[in-house]
Amino acid sequence: MTLRRASRATVLCTAAVAALSLTGGAALADGGKGREIDTRADYTPGEEFQPLASSSPCNGEPSGKQAKPFVLPAGYGQQVLAEEGEGGSTDLWDMNTQNESGKDAGRYVYRTHEVGAGSAVGGGSQVTVTDLKTGVTKILAQRSDWERFDGIVWSPWGTLIAAEETRAQNGKDPQVPQAVGGLVYEYFVDPQHPDRLLPSREPITPGDGTTDTVQDGVRARPAVGAKSHEGMRFDGRGFFYGISESTGSQPGLSGAIFRFTPDSTKRNERTLAFGQLQAYDSPNGHDGQGSWITLDPTRTQVDADKEAEDVGANEYERPEDVETGVSTGKDANNGGHTLYVAMTGTDEVLALDLSRSEAPFGYHYVSTGAHLGAPTAPANAPALEFDSPDNLALDGKGNLAITEDPGGVPPAKMKGDDIWIAAPPASDDGDGESEARLPASAVERFASIKDCIAEPTGIYFAMAGTERFIKKDLKGLVTDETLFVNRQHAGQTSPIDQLIAINPHDDDDEGADDDGEEDEG
User: Fold this and answer.
1) Runs of H (alpha helix) within 101-233
2) Chain-centre distance of CA 2, in angstroms?
3) What ranges do the domains of the chain cover?
4) Cα 262 to Cα 281: distance, rounded to the nearest angstrom
5) How many whole angstroms separate alpha carbon 144 and alpha carbon 474?
6) Do strands 184-187 and 218-220 pair parallel, antiparallel, or not at all (unpaired)?
7) pTM for this prediction
8) Strand pairing category for 442-449 and 108-113
C-alpha cells in the first residue's frame, strides 16, 4: 500500500510502538549486562578463532545465496540471507539492527540504504526489513527526499531510528525547512506486526521543529540535530549518542561526538521530539577528562556540526560508528558505561568512560600510534594493516568487532577490507570487566572481504533468541552467535549488495560450510 501526501513523498508500508517509560526501561541501567537480548556470540581472538595472517586478495565473488563473500578462520561458516533487489530493495546496504524488544523480538533484521535523494536507483533512501522466519525481504519505508541513510538503532521504547549521512541536503524535507544537514527519523513499528508501520501510533508533537501534522508512522526528529549522522546508540541511562561524519580540521566542520538528552513526557516516557544536544570537549581537544558542552537548540536544528565547532567542542577526523553495551553486546569496560567511537581519519577507536555521566573521560582503545591530535597515542593495532575503522559491534564477552573502509578500487587496491576483533583488557579482579581505562589487550584480523570494490558494513551480533525464528534450511547457519554483516558497494564479479550471516559451527551442523583461510588460493 502506498500512502501519499501533498508536499511529501512516498512512505511505504507503515509503523509505531508505545513508548516505554524511562522507569519501565530501567533494565537498561546496568549498561547492558546480563539482559535477555544479549548475544551469545564469543569471538575472542586466540581462543575462539585463530587470526587471519593477511587480507584477502582481490578475487571477487559472485552473487547468489551460495556466495561466500568473506575469507574466514577455520571453524566459521557464512550464509547469504538476502540480496539487493529482493522485495524492491535498492542499492547500498548499510547498517543493520534487529527488533530488540516486543513481539517476536529478534525475528526481523532492518537495514538502511545509503542512496541519494530521488535517486534513479530507487527513488530515495529506504529502510528495508528481512523476516528471518520466512526469508522474505520488503520495504518498510521510502521517500524521495530521504538521502544517504546510514545509522539505524532500535530504541528502548520499541521504535526504529534511522538517519541521513549528509552535511548538506540535496533533497530537503519540506516539513523541516530550517535543516541544512541530515536528519534523524523515527519509525513507529506495529507492535503486533514489526515488519509494518502503524501510523496511528505516531504522536503529533507541536513545537518539535517539524510542521508535520499527518500521521504516517514516520516523524523527523530535528531536536537531535541536523548533521551528517552515522552511528547512533543509547546508553543505560537513556542518553542518545552520535557523531557528525565530517573532517574537523576543515572550516565549518567539527567531526564532534554528541550526546542528546531526551525530554520526558507527562507520562514519564522518553521522546526524541524534545531534548538537549551537547558535544564532548576536553582541554587537549582529543581525549582525557572532559565535559559536555550545551549547544544552542535553534542552531543545532540548522547545522549542529557548525554549532559544535563554534562553541569549541573537540574536533575529530571523520568519526563514523558508535557502540555501547545497550544493544546486543556486553561492554566489559568501565562498569558497562563506555562509548566506543570509530575514527576513520586517524585509524583509531576512541573510548569514552561514561561512569560519571557529566564528566566523560576519553582514552585510546584501539590505535596504530601517534596521529593528528594525539602525538603520544599508544599503538596496539598494526599500522600498515589496520586501516580506516568504520563500523563497530560488541559481542557477548566484550570483544569489539571493527570493520574497515579505506576506499579505493582495483587495480590500485590490492587487498580486501577486513573485520578486526579487539579483545578487552584483563579484568581487575577476575570478573571479566576492567575499570582501569586500558586499551584493548589484542587487535586481530577476523575476516576479509574478497570483493575489493565492496566494504563490510552493518556488523551486528544476533540477539539471544534469534535462532528460534530461523528457517529450517538455515538451522545451524544462523544462531544466537551470528555476526550479521553487509557486502556494500559490491562490484567485483557482482554488483549485488548482500546480507551475510557469519557463524561459528560444529562439525555436525547440517549444511555448515567452512570457508577458512587455508581454502583461499
Assistant:
1) none
2) 28
3) 22-97+228-519
4) 20
5) 35
6) antiparallel
7) 0.91
8) unpaired
Mean of the per-residue pLDDT values for the chain? 89
User: How far is the CA of 214 from the CAs of 31, 141, 190, in angstroms?
Assistant: 36, 15, 17
CA distance 260 to 184: 12
Question: Which residues are within 8 A (CB) of 411 and not within 5 positions of it... i.e. 6 or more apart?
Answer: none
Cα–Cα distance for residue pair 252/306, rounded to 1 Å? 5
Please answer whether residues 17 and 153 qualify as being in contact, where contact means their C-beta atoms are separated by less than 8 angstroms: no
* Burial class of residue 210 (count of CB atoms within 10 Å of its CB; 0-12, 13-18, 19+): buried
User: Cell numbers of 144, please?
Assistant: 524521495
Three cell numbers, residue 42: 564469543
- Tell me the CA distances in angstroms from 244 to 102, 258, 378, one per residue in order: 31, 8, 25
Q: Percentage helix, strand, coil, to 5, in the chain?
A: 10, 35, 55
Taken in order 150, 154, 157, 160, the sign of the CA dihedral is: positive
Cell of 521: 588460493
Question: E strand or H helix at 304, and its extent?
Answer: helix 297-310
pLDDT tens track for 326-346: 999 999 999 999 999 999 999
Backbone angles phi, psi at 333, to 5 degrees: -115, 150
Cβ distance 55 to 382 under 8 Å?
no
Burial 10-23 (b: 16+ CB within 10 A, else e): bbbbbbbbebbbbe
HEC string for 87-111: HHCCCCEEEEEECCCCCCCCCEEEE
Helix (H, G, I), strand (E, B) or coil at 297: helix
Cell reading at 252? 565549518
Residue 74 has which C-alpha cell? 577455520
What type of residue is 427? S
Q: Which tens digits make up the pLDDT trace of 35-67?
A: 678 999 999 999 999 999 999 999 999 999 999
Q: What is the DSSP letter of 453?
A: S
The residue that leads in pLDDT, 60 or 271, is: 60
Write the DSSP symbol of residue 463: P
What is the rounded distance in angstroms from the CA atom of residue 193 to the CA atom of residue 98? 14
CB 394 within 8 Å of CB 383:
no
Contact 391, 455 (CB under 8 A): no
C-alpha cell at position 336: 558497562
Q: State in Å, rounded, how far the first CA of the chain is from the last one.
A: 49
How far, in Å, CA of 231 to CA of 146, rounded? 17
Over residues 141-166, mean pLDDT: 96
Residue located via cell numbers 527513488: 123
Largest CA distance in the chain: 63
Q: Which residues contact 341 (CB under 8 A, 6 or more apart)?
A: 231, 243, 257, 316, 319, 321, 322, 349, 350, 351, 352
| C-alpha cell belonging to residue 26 | 530501567
Contact 419, 45 (CB under 8 A): no
